[in-house]
């Protein structure tokens, strides 16, 4: 059977449809609609009426696309992007009335566990630390263990870090403050103190966007395993912070995430630096994939 999952994040709504049979999951279609709630969020943390309309219209579009390819069920999930919305009930009600679908709002541990489930095969690479770069939060998972109590989802996504400085893009001193804040959050939550990892596994649309900029900047050819070097990522950050051409690079590659890339890059680099990883791998699987697999296991398709 075909199952669809729509993920409501801070910068987009994305659809994944898989054909599920036994242990086999075959991707049928993947579609993304750029809908940034940041642009519709008031200072009081509420999505405007126009923003709610955009969300409902996008979900309609994606659910129609799922039905056209034969999806028998459509599920909507949200993560930190909805946990920060003050008028969540209003948004959820509008979605339900406009589409007939309900939103399942994943808490932090469930979000991290879905990431883990989607990327279990990467544990074969040795000591791997998964970092899901969300909008308002980021999840960290040691891929060598599956205890939810040791999976962390913390308030240090690019959108949260973006609010730590003024201006269109962070400057050199802003990057220093962002790094200090990341360290402070990790220490406060005792996230793998004293540990080292051979690789960092990045997931999420912000990681995908970061890799697009990295690939363009260093003229990297297409490769089956998408990797970034920690040292090169540091050079990219310096370029994005200081170059007068940074806006052109960002708009050319990720126009919908121009404000997210530098904080995301600093977060990825800082995590790699802190845990001693020289290589970062960008996965094409994330929360949607993991949640879909959990649905499959629960229904025993």
Features:
301 residues, Nucleotidyltransferase, domain 5, globular
Q: What would you say this structure looks like, in words?
A:
The structure is a single chain. This protein has 301 residues and is an alpha/beta fold. The chain folds into two domains: 2-105, ATPase, nucleotide binding domain (Nucleotidyltransferase, domain 5, 2-Layer Sandwich), CATH 3.30.420; 121-282, Nucleotidyltransferase, domain 5 (2-Layer Sandwich), CATH 3.30.420.150. The protein has helices at 49-68, 80-83, 88-99, 108-118, 158-162, 172-188, 205-217, 230-242, 246-253, 261-274, 287-299; strands spanning 2-8, 12-21, 24-34, 73-78, 103-105, 128-133, 138-142, 152-154, 199-203, 227-229, 279-282. A hairpin with a 3-residue loop joins strand 1 and strand 2 (12-21). Helix 4 (108-118) packs across helix 11 and helix 7 (205-217) packs across helix 10. The protein is globular.
Sheet with the most strands, sense and barrel status:
6 strands, mixed
What's the shape? globular
Q: Name the average pLDDT.
A: 90
CATH class of the largest domain equals Alpha Beta
Q: Which fold name is given in CATH as the topology of the largest domain?
A: Nucleotidyltransferase, domain 5
Strand order of the largest sheet: 8-7-6-9-11-10
Instruction: Evaluate the radius of gyration.
Output: 19 Å
> What's the CATH superfamily of the largest domain, by name?
Exopolyphosphatase. Domain 2
Would you report the number of β strands? 11
What's the end-to-end separation, in Å? 8 Å
Count of helix runs? 11
Low-confidence runs: none
CATH architecture of the largest domain: 2-Layer Sandwich
Element-by-element helix/strand order: EEEHEHHEHEEEHHEHEHHHEH
């Amino acid at each position: 059977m075909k199952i669809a999952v729509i993920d409501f994040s801070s910068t987009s709504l994305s659809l994944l449809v898989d054909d599920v049979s036994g242990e086999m999951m075959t991707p049928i279609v993947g579609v993304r609609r750029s809908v940034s709630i940041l642009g519709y969020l008031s200072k009081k943390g509420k999505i405007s009426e126009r923003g709610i309309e955009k969300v409902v219209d996008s979900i309609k579009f994606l659910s129609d696309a799922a039905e056209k390819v034969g999806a028998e069920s459509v599920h909507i999930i949200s993560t930190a992007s909805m946990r920060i919305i003050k008028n969540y009930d209003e948004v959820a009600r509008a979605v339900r009335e406009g589409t007939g679908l309900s939103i399942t709002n994943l808490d932090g541990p469930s979000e991290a566990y879905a990431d883990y489930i989607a990327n279990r095969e990467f544990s074969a690479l040795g000591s791997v630390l998964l970092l899901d770069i969300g909008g308002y939060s980021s999840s960290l998972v040691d891929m060598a263990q599956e205890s939810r109590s040791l999976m962390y989802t913390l308030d240090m996504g690019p959108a949260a870090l973006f609010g730590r400085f003024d201006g269109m893009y962070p400057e050199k001193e802003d990057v220093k403050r962002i790094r200090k804040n990341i360290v402070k959050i990790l220490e406060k939550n005792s996230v793998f103190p004293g540990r080292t990892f051979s690789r960092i596994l990045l997931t999420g649309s912000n990681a995908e966007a970061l890799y697009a900029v990295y690939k363009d900047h260093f003229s990297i050819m297409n490769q089956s395993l998408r990797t970034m070097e920690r040292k090169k990522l540091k050079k990219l950050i310096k370029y994005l912070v200081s170059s007068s051409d940074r806006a052109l690079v960002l708009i050319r590659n990720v126009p919908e995430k121009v404000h997210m890339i530098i904080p995301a890059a600093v977060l990825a680099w800082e995590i790699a630096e802190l845990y001693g990883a020289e290589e970062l791998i960008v996965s094409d699987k994330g929360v949607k994939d993991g949640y879909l697999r959990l649905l499959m296991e629960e229904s025993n398709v």
